């Protein structure tokens, strides 16, 4: 367990050095880093993130197919300037993606992953995305 912990700690330091993101570095204090490391060593966090990513990819593909279907319908009706007609559809897509982000935040908050809570603050979401990226980078190691 200590070897795994040390591996995650080293990978996190390398990840942060590579990112060179002052907001991310400020958010990931040493105590938060330690908490994140413990969550990752215990094992379920990587599986949760992997499942959430798979669900996100599925949802994105589903929405893309729906969008293409809508465009095809409009064109078959002789509507070739689809910008106006697609605005409402695209707004609904954005709303669904926002709901998906909220679900992901809730899932990771329930799993006690540090810095995950429901927010619409772009800076916090960027930090959360970086943490997810780091977790995914460890998937094959843990």
Automatic annotation (TrEMBL):
Protein name per the record: Uncharacterized protein
Pfam families: DGCR6
Family, as annotated: Belongs to the gonadal family.
InterPro entries in the record: Gonadal
